[in-house]
């Protein structure tokens, strides 16, 4: 924690003065994102999203088409820095999976996939407190956080996720301010 | 020429223009309503009203390209409502200091996308300028406008609860909407802890009961897409159809009013010069009376662009006040908290309003503040944290994560203040002397800044919101204060203010130009002070009142 706080302080100074911003890092974050590579990763993204939200008694992320949502969101709605972190993260994950299990992620067993994703979750965990806020602000959201956030968002706003895993009311017709929770009550899909 | 002559011309079809159209048509005047944007037919043109989030490419998110091309408007719209906002690229303006000018150029204007909160002003507001010396005195008091509030509320349909507060007068309300459990809890705790504060359900122009064949509200909370159930008040759903039903309405969309024509010989406005937005063809229309309802900034720009030998600085601008005293409410300060209780309770449906905490500062000697003048009101919402909050809060992934994600989380309450901004002469709209838009009209320039009074109020808002959440037993309380650019509340007001003295104001007590008696202005530009209440209801009431006066004056042959 102390180390992290210290790094946070350095980042503040660094971002302000530009002193510690090494030319390479700057280039790496702001380079033109490899979108051609990204568009070829549908299968990998589908497998990753499915690990985060698997099919249970309700559809999983794959059936909900979350991978296509992630592709579109990274391409159209994500700033360059985060795009690069995400695409670099996917590349790292591919190599990690091959070197560790000698298989591509989609071909790994469910438990191997969990191991892999847990590794990246740990690696991408933001620091605590103010240092974490600064970290996210200047370095962008980590690969894992972006993947998880977009999976949740894509799933809960998909037809399958909203109407089958959550509770979607197209036309409620009335508003009741206090309603006792029913057994197994699910969250409303929209506000 | 026969086709170009009317009894009345109304410039703009938004919330106040729609009311002018209805009142004038119903009183038998052949009325021309001129709208610069495209036609939007009620229901038929609400093309996104029934779509689910999955039907939009980015599930309602705006793309980066969208944000770059429309940096101002895109903050107000999403993929489902974008078609009711202008393109920043096509409709540029100059921001001297950052100012968000959010616009909807179409039939119905911003009445399609407004927040629908409706609160009356009171004598606390009408007397404020006279008491503390900022701006000029309002030429009216609450008793002058009260019957007109009654009148417009009865037609529009406002849901709300009577509270008997002198400084936030009750109206003609439809049944109030429910509070959620946490909001009821909050209301009761605040009542127990503070003698000066009331928590009430939002007063909102959504029909909790059908009114005149419209509604009732279906609790979808998708109002800004246009409502196929006519569940909320808009020009398109309510006033324009009423105007059309008289047979006296002519509505021309895609028509930009470029100037008001002043007839020096008869000392009156004879009509308007209008450019077709597509063909650029210019036509003149004439009428006995004119209502300008183009919206606060656009109306000021129109007056400034209407120069003549008599009015070299803009129509009716002998006071030099046109364009000045621009106000907006300031927002962006408040707090959130979570509550551990009521975990066995939820809600059904999507209520199109929040709750409201009327102003409680500087009401009387016991609530007087030394650090600032005037006050603020809170809007708030108490709901359970759902997937959009839980996703990031819940660690891990997999089946266990999914199970947690789809369950309602703890209750939370968000509260944010709408604060009164004083009328500052330097906050102004002007026309750029050289730069022009694609129609050859001078670009509008906005200069707007907040000052010490607003800054001091912000500090108190942070403190009082924390204090209230804490008193009501909330935990994990976070206050926030963002100095957002002016215009963010989309409550522009004040650029052609009402007043008693023609030397210091533009309009008289009936929204009639001091200088040009047959021109009436009843959009937000008429506001002498901002109060802290959402202002549209006041524009509606002032419009109906001004129309009544105009008809009376026409009958007496004074116009």
What does this protein look like?
The complex is a heterodimer of chains A (191) and B (559). Chain A is an all-alpha fold and 191 residues long. Chain A is built from ten helices and one strand. The two termini of chain A are 38 Å apart. Chain B has helices at residues 15-26, 64-69, 123-126, 128-132, 142-156, 181-193, 235-245, 296-305, 387-393, 399-405, 452-471, 536-555; strands at 5-11, 31-34, 94-95, 158-159, 173-174, 200-201, 249-252, 255-263, 268-276, 282-292, 333-339, 345-348, 355-357, 376-384, 411-419, 428-436, 442-447, 475-481, 519-521. In chain B, the strands form four sheets. In chain B, strands 1, 2, 7, 8, 9, 10 and 19 form a seven-stranded mixed beta sheet that branches. In chain B, helix 1 (15-26) packs parallel to helix 7 (235-245), helix 1 packs parallel to helix 12 and helix 5 crosses helix 12 (536-555). The longest helix of chain B has 20 residues, at 452-471. Chains A and B meet through helix 5, helix 7, helix 9, helix 10 and strand 1 of A and helix 6, strand 12, helix 9 and helix 10 of B.
How does the SSE layout of this entry go?
The complex is a heterodimer of chains A (191) and B (559).
Chain A: H1 2-17, H2 23-30, H3 35-39, H4 42-52, H5 66-77, H6 80-101, H7 110-124, H8 129-139, H9 143-156, H10 159-165, E1 176-180
Chain B: E1 5-11, H1 15-26, E2 31-34, H2 64-69, E3 94-95, H3 123-126, H4 128-132, H5 142-156, E4 158-159, E5 173-174, H6 181-193, E6 200-201, H7 235-245, E7 249-252, E8 255-263, E9 268-276, E10 282-292, H8 296-305, E11 333-339, E12 345-348, E13 355-357, E14 376-384, H9 387-393, H10 399-405, E15 411-419, E16 428-436, E17 442-447, H11 452-471, E18 475-481, E19 519-521, H12 536-555
Parallel strand pairs in B: 1-2, 1-10, 2-7, 3-17, 4-5, 10-19
Antiparallel strand pairs in B: 6-13, 8-9, 9-10, 11-15, 11-18, 13-14, 14-15, 16-17
Helix pairs in contact in B: 1-7, 1-12, 5-12
